[in-house]
Amino acid sequence: MELNFDNISTEITALEILSKISEYDIFKYYCKNFVEIDKSFCSELRNDKHPGCRIFLTYSNQLKYRDFAIGETLDCFQYVMQKFNLHYYEALNVVAADFSIRKSTIDISPRVIAANDEFKLKMANIPKEKSLITIVSQPFTIFDYNYWEQYKIPLEKLEEFDIFSAQYVYLIKGNKRITFEYKKDNPCYAYRFEREGTYSYKIYWPLNSNKKHKWLFSGGAQDDIEGYSQLPLHGDLLILTKSLKDVISFNLLGYNAISLQGEANKLEPEFVIKLLKRFDKIITVYDEDEEGIKGAIRFKNQFGFNYFFIDEWKDLSEFVKNEGIDNAKIMIANKLRNINE
Length: 341
Description:
This protein is of the alpha+beta class. The chain has three domains: 2-107, Zinc finger, CHC2-typedomain (DNA Primase, Chain A, Alpha-Beta Complex), CATH 3.90.580; 131-223, no CATH class; 228-340, 3-Layer(aba) Sandwich (Dna Topoisomerase Vi A Subunit, Chain: A, domain 2), CATH 3.40.1360.10. 30% of the residues lie in helices and 23% in strands. The protein contains eleven helices and 15 strands. Strands 6, 7, 8, 9, 10 and 11 form a six-stranded antiparallel beta sheet that branches. Helix 10 crosses helix 11 (325-340). It is elongated.
């Protein structure tokens, strides 16, 4: 991307732009599928066959773009940022130039600062501050099917648990913007969590050879409970496990399960009380490694949760992959019978 603003004497502001043109003018100019307010249309920021986007008027009289499929809400300048991979002040200057509010020489083309085949977060010198992650989802591919089918997890189950195939992932920290792209040899998935009407994401590259670069977190992901939104109101047994993949594996076997974001994470007593009002019993099933054993014992001592380990393989999803669903059902039933005796 080439942006030349050398001939601009002072920084343009959103207030200056909106004193001369409206949010409606900006959306109308840059959002090509936008026809009228509150009328659904297809996104041009992702592959979209079904109209799932709207531009609507908020209670504070502000126009916003909403993509209901991925839970993204953008104002007019954020839309320009998203469309052209711009920083905030770059987007303001682009709008100012396009509407002749300020004169400048601008040549816009898509940019990628870093791709997920070379995870260059440290090289990008990103400051330690709150990050924002947005995704451009895509229909599940044959590579997605092949990966999840190993664990006998159908693609419909991914949709049920708010897992998306992510064509692009945008990470914004301060004035730094990183773009990650889905690759056939390193597919990318977005786990979505909703809290009080807002979304946060946990990005997963399962085939990344560097374990440190398999995950990317945004917003309140450390406090999000995986599988919680899919739980029934009441049940006999709830299993606390260590990953959303294992939550889904337990679900396929007929068990209710949730997962924290890590085996070292804590459970708030108030949350445990809430769970025990819905489920008669909670059992921990973590990996049989140092972290998993410590976590299981900690919850046993703190809350009285019984626990067992899947010692035949690393975890339940690996057991299903190698032994099959029927054998997994027998194995889990035997372990539950043993700790209840």
